[in-house]
Structure formats: structure tokens, C-alpha cells
């Protein structure tokens, strides 16, 4: 959806990434509007180093491009959306610096704008990484929808940055104001977090998992992945296998341990996830491997993959959508060789078998329990 956002300074044409004319979700929301309005109304000096953390689709970064902000994001899709929106609105190249959550942050921050993420762990990790660059005069403002800002959110700002208060709600959005403490006492970051897997889950039994902040189920094995691990296909030596939406890489690592001669490619749109997958793999396996941050299987040559293993997400931030799963499935069909297979685990109620039959012309239930189903589709 390509639509116009009105800011205190200009109107902007914005869209999500990848662009899809069927997508009716906007590339911004009331939390973005509230923050930009507050900056203009308060006359906040947008000078020095302006850092925007957690921008969803680049709306904040694009609106503030004249002030040469630094964007920090965990999302490849956000990064690409920002690039596209900057071009769409005629922002000159080099006006904005784009960093990931895995890059070293700026050494000094004068204005810190935080779009509160869904993951409290990711917020903690980012605030701890950025706090040393904040000084007594740094303006720190967070924004989010009311349902995204909790007491625990405010406690994090208070503990890591300094005294914190919130605004009144406006259009179901709220702002967070923190005054940097000149002499803060901060704990060391607990991230990345490591834990040991159970003993009854196949090749990865008892192995170490490494999770960077923000990765799904950071402190334990999620039940969907556990079910999938019990029903993975046999993999022949030399096969090229993609762990699509790899998260912490447990599934791909299980394949690598079961068949050391297979080539495993770990793919996710989250920089934190791919870093976790690489750390998990390196702690347990050694073989032919590749790690990619990207939009599903974009960039893979058609017919270059033998097997795709996938546990697709069904949320995009706060929105429930099957758009990501559909892109993953269509990308898998394109990348698979004839006879190659896509194996999917998901909640039974999501009805992925219908999508797979429509796309591949076939879908078979490999295993199921009251909550999950493992499906297989073969490229003809």
C-alpha cells in the first residue's frame, strides 16, 4: 500500500516492503505521528547525532531525513523499506546512516528516539548498548501504541537511562520521556543468552543454543520447533538445505549434525536471528554452511535447493497476516529443484495445507498433534 503520511513539516509517500498492491496495511501508525508531532510542538533541537531505533518501515527516519539521522534496526525488511521510502521522497543518498542491531552504535547520541519493540529483551539489549553514548543533555523519547507500553517497559527506561514518565494517550498511542541519569548504575547485558537443549530431541539433544535479544523463545525451546525436530526428513549427503526463518538455528543445526555432508543455509530477515543461528551452529557443528539476512529466498537461483524447512511467522509487528508465509512458500517453490521438498510446521488452525496445495498442487500431512501439524509439499 502506497499512501501519504502528513508530518509537521511535509507530506510523505510511504509503503511497506516488499511492495504489494494487495497489502492494505500502512507503513506508519499513530505512534509515529505522535512522536513527530511532539518533536515539532516542543521545538526539540534535532541537532548533533539523532538516532532512531526500531523504526517499523522507515517512516520516522524518512520524516527526519533533513537532520541526517542514524537508523538502527534488527529488520532487513525495515532497512529495505527505509531505503525505498527515502528514494520515493527524493532524499539524497548519504543523508541517512543505516545500521543494524549487530553494528557498533554511534559513540555520542544527542537525540535518541525509540520505537518500542514487541520484545522487551530487544529493548533492554538496545538501551544497554546505546546508554554509554547518551549524555546529560540527550533528548530521549520513546513511542508506541498503548498496548505496547507496559510498566516493565518504563522500568527498563528508568533503570538503564534515568527518570522516566509517560504522556497522555493520543489515538491509542503514548510517548515515553526519559531524563538521562548523569551517574547511572547499569547491570552488564545478559545477552546473548545460552541454554542447553533437552536430551530427547534427536541430533541436537543436549546441545548449546545461543540467542541474541529479540529472537523468538530466547530462554527455552519452543514447542513448535520441538515438534518439528521429532519429524525432520532424512537428508542425503551433498543436499542443499535451507533453514528458512531460521531463528536461533536449531533446526538447521540438527540437519548439519545428522548429515555432516549436507550444505545448510540459514536465512532470516532478523539480524539478531542470523547472528544467533551462526553462534548456535558454530558451538555445535562444522561443515558447509552459509548465513544470509534477507527476504526469504530472494536471491536464490531457481532450482538451486533440495530441501526447505520452514516454521513461518504469522505476525508482522502487531498485525496478524499470512503474507510472510505466502512469500516464503512461493520463494521455496521457485528455489527448489524438481522433486525438491518444502517441509512446514505450523499451528493446525492456520490452514497452511490449503496454501501449499494451491501453490504446489500437493500437500501431505507428515505428523500432527492437537496443536501442530508438519506438512510436506513436493515441487513437480
Automatic annotation (TrEMBL):
PROSITE patterns: N6_MTASE. It catalyses: guanosine(1835) in 23S rRNA + S-adenosyl-L-methionine = N(2)-methylguanosine(1835) in 23S rRNA + S-adenosyl-L-homocysteine + H(+). CDD domains: AdoMet_MTases. Its main location: cytoplasm. Belongs to the methyltransferase superfamily. RlmG family. SUPFAM superfamilies: S-adenosyl-L-methionine-dependent methyltransferases. This is Ribosomal RNA large subunit methyltransferase G. Specifically methylates the guanine in position 1835 (m2G1835) of 23S rRNA. Residues 208-376 form the Methyltransferase small domain. It is found in: Cytoplasm. Gene3D superfamilies: Vaccinia Virus protein VP39. It comes from Streptomyces poonensis. One of its GO terms (molecular function) is nucleic acid binding. Its EC number is 2.1.1.174. Keywords: Cytoplasm, Methyltransferase, rRNA processing, S-adenosyl-L-methionine, Transferase. InterPro entries: DNA_methylase_N6_adenine_CS (IPR002052), RLMG (IPR017237), RlmG_N (IPR058679), RsmC/RlmG (IPR046977), SAM-dependent_MTases_sf (IPR029063), Small_mtfrase_dom (IPR007848). It comes from the Bacteria. Residues 4-181 form the RlmG N-terminal domain. GO terms for cellular component: cytoplasm.
Amino acid at each position: 500500500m502506497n499512501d501519504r503520511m502528513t508530518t509537521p513539516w511535509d507530506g510523505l509517500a510511504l509503503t511497506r516492503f516488499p511492495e504489494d498492491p494487495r497489502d492494505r496495511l500502512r507503513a506508519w501508525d499513530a505512534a509515529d505521528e505522535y512522536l513527530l508531532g511532539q518533536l515539532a510542538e516542543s521545538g526539540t533541537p534535532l541537532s548533533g547525532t539523532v538516532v532512531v531505533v526500531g523504526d517499523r518501515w522507515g517512516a520516522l527516519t524518512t520524516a527526519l531525513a533533513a537532520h541526517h539521522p542514524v537508523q538502527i534496526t534488527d529488520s532487513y525488511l525495515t532497512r529495505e523499506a527505509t531505503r525505498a521510502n527515502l528514494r520515493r521522497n527524493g532524499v539524497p543518498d548519504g543523508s541517512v546512516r543505516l545500521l543494524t542491531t549487530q553494528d557498533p552504535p554511534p559513540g555520542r547520541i544527542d537525540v535518541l528516539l525509540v520505537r518500542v519493540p514487541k520484545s522487551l529483551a530487544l529493548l533492554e539489549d538496545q538501551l544497554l548498548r546505546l546508554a554509554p553514548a547518551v549524555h546529560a543533555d540527550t533528548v530521549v523519547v520513546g513511542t508506541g501504541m498503548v498496548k505496547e507500553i507496559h510498566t516493565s517497559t518504563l522500568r527498563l527506561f528508568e533503570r538503564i537511562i534515568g527518570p522516566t514518565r509517560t504522556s497522555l494517550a493520543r489515538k491509542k498511542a503514548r510517548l515515553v520521556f526519559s531524563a538521562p541519569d548523569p551517574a547511572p548504575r547499569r547491570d552488564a547485558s545478559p545477552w546473548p543468552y545460552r541454554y542447553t537443549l533437552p536430551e530427547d530431541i534427536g541430533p541436537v539433544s543436549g546441545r548449546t543454543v545461543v540467542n541474541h535479544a529479540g529472537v523468538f523463545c530466547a530462554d527455552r525451546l519452543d514447542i513448535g520447533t520441538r515438534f518439528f525436530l521429532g519429524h525432520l526428513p532424512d537428508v542425503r549427503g551433498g543436499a542443499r538445505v535451507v533453514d528458512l526463518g531460521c531463528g536461533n538455528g536449531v533446526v538447521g543445526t540438527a540437519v548439519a549434525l545428522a548429515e555432516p555432508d549436507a550444505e545448510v543455509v540459514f536465512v532470516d530477515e532478523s539480524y539478531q536471528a542470523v547472528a544467533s543461528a551462526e553462534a548456535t551452529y558454530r558451538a555445535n557443528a562444522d561443515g558447509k554452511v552459509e548465513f544470509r539476512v534477507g527476504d526469504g529466498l530472494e536471491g536464490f537461483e531457481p532450482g538451486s535447493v533440495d530441501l526447505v524447512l520452514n516454521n513461518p511467522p504469522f505476525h508482522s509487528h502487531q498485525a496478524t497476516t499470512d503474507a510472510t508465509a505466502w512469500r516464503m512458500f512461493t520463494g521455496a517453490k521457485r528455489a527448489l529443484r524438481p522433486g525438491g521438498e518444502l517441509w512446514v510446521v505450523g499451528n493446525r488452525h492456520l490452514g497452511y495445507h490449503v496454501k501449499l496445495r494451491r501453490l504446489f498442487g500437493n500437500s501431505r500431512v507428515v505428523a500432527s498433534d492437537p496443536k501442530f501439524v508438519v506438512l510436506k509439499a513436493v515441487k513437480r
